[in-house]
Amino acid sequence: MQIKPNQRTPKTLTHAYMVCGVGREPSQWVRAPPPSQGKIGHLKGAVGQFWLPEILGSSPRLEQDNETARALYAAMRACFPHDVEICTGRSQPHCVHHSFVLQQDSSHTLYGIALRVWSRADEKRAETIRDLRRRTESDFYDSPDETYWIPYCLSFLSRYPLYDLLGDYLRGMWIHWNKATNLFHAEEVSRILSFPAPRLNDLVRIDMKDYALCYQFPSSPTGFQNFAMWPLFTCLSIPNIVGLIEAAVSATRRIIFLSHYPAMLTVASETVRTCVRVYEWSGLYVPVVHARHTTELVQEPGPYMLGITAECRTLFTAPSDALVIDLDRNFVLTSSPPTVLSPGQRAKMITRLTNALNGDVAPSGPPAHLRSAYGGGKLVPAGQIIVMRGEVESVENPLWWNQDSIMGVMDHVCEKLVRSRGNRE
What per-residue confidence (pLDDT) applies to 425? Predict the structure, then answer.
């Protein structure tokens, strides 16, 4: 992962904070327009409609300048890739979090973290939602004791790709302050928004209650990696990963990831970019695509890497040269497989990657920490921590994972391909 050298040096660790969702008054909600083809799948227990989100508060404010407004609206679409769904049910739906990347132009990239939390609708709002449904749903069954849950998203933006650090911070603060949201917004948001930007080689440390979150800034702007790469290896078999890397270094390079979990989409995209770092992957890069942009982005001439939620699978027809990768089912679909490697080179790369892992890995899908923000109802930090008191559970790398060995194979293959291309030209 790299920070572009011509990007101006940020003064603070984070760039902006935002809360988005639907406004307080349901009668003013705007229904989202339906997609031009196909149908977006709904969450379990969701009302059969989608509403447009709005920005409910931000720092800096939306009105500050056009660039800020543009970034915040793009982040809002990444926070709610299907727009807003209202859920019903006795218990609160899962809170989920995911990271996203906003390529603003060739020299400006923003990295975001979104945490989707749920608020129980009070009786007045619930009655208004029931009225809306009576008017718009022909098969609406009125159940007065039904509980409605309304989602909203908290999001940090940064010029640095600090996925684990800021994701852990945001989730930790929500647990700490969610009963007093005004305190959360005032104290914790101002604390992190004013946190000075570290220099290369600095250790960033953010003290929490029983532990500190930390991340060692790299020695070079191209060395950022604040996420674990191993989840891609729990989603895809080694032969499928080799095909994916081939696609990433081929001339057409059209890659479409599918998953029910937006967190997995960004981790997969960032892992592939890291694996082909020798090439410095370039092209259209949208790890979390908004439903309304799906049809149009898939038809772009490429190269591209797109992440599309499984709920949006019917919204597009993939071009014949694209690789469509279902991360939840270890399934790759294409009518023209990449041919960058010869059959012998491909077999050798599969063997080397298999040997680079400490044992066999059977694909089991996205890991639990990318499926839910609070596994077992508590925060389990995904990034590096320094424990100050007691015992703190954190997400551990699996015993079979060996990043240095894996990257040794990836760099070796990519360097050979670069050299052979150079000789041909």
Answer: 46
